[in-house]
Design a protein that fits this description.
This protein is mainly alpha-helical. The chain has one domain. α1 packs across α3 and α4 crosses α6. The longest helix has 25 residues. 55% of the residues are buried.
């Protein structure tokens, strides 16, 4: 039952910053001895549930750019399929090391989030080529680590495409709905998840997604960004130390 509140907390934070809650769920499951594949597959169920709840709420607020979101989501799906297959081949130490590096990238994104400046919204051929590669990579990351690809999608939409942050985070949640669903299906076909654990995480994450999307316009983002950055940074250090076999 402890997975229920874990999913809830991850859902709130993930929904507000557009990353999905996997960057909180997966490290916790890993610290409790879950194998990398099990942690990632269970987390994807929570990510899907969270993205559905967040998307429904953000849709009512009219903050989703559907035309862009659908394009990026479709490109990410082949990456999620590859990520699910690769997850079987990744050893626990390598998983922790790679995931630690992903969390470092997440810290950088969260820290620089307010400094990201949108420009005029455009999709040139060069930007679309970049978007194809970035979206495919985000799909791999999402399925391999059980997290949302928001750490890739949000900077891509804000810096490269020129979308405002107010629209980028909700659109990222819309994209993650498709990416996490694809990864979730592939992991299920491969027999990776524990459905009871995944269900508990999903229920908590769904409720958290609704709460988080409503709080996103009210909460002090500076304090939230500082808190999340500290937590993720400490988690990343712990994972990398564990991966390198040094005493924690």
């Amino acid at each position: 039952m402890w997975l229920l509140p874990l999913g809830f907390v991850a859902g709130i934070i993930g929904s507000m910053i557009g990353l999905g809650g996997g960057f909180i769920v997966v490290p916790v499951l890993t610290f409790f001895g879950f194998s990398p594949t099990l942690a990632a597959s269970d987390s994807l169920f929570a990510a899907f549930s969270n993205s559905v709840a967040s998307t429904a709420s953000y849709a009512r607020q009219k903050r989703i750019v559907y035309s862009l979101g659908i394009k990026l989501a479709l490109i990410s799906i082949p990456g999620t399929i590859l990520g699910a297959y690769v997850s079987d081949e990744v050893s626990p130490p390598l998983f922790k090391l790679l995931f630690g590096l992903v969390l470092v990238a997440s810290c950088v994104y969260i820290y620089l989030r307010r400094k990201m400046e949108s420009r005029e919204h455009h999709l040139s051929k060069q930007i679309m080529l970049l978007a194809v590669g970035a979206s495919f990579s985000a799909g791999v990351i999402s399925s391999l680590f059980g997290i949302g690809g928001g750490v890739v999608f949000v900077p891509l939409m804000v810096i490269a495409i020129g979308l405002s942050m107010k629209l980028a985070a909700p659109t990222s949640q819309f994209i993650l709905m498709f990416a996490s669903a694809s990864g979730m299906i592939m992991h299920s076909i491969l027999g990776h998840p524990n459905y009871y654990e995944a269900g508990m995480l999903s229920i908590g994450s769904f409720i958290g997604g609704i709460v988080g999307s409503k709080l996103s316009t009210r909460i002090d983002e500076t304090k939230l960004r500082m808190f999340v950055t500290i937590v993720i940074g400490a988690t990343a250090v712990k994972l990398i130390i564990d991966a390198l076999g040094r005493p924690s």
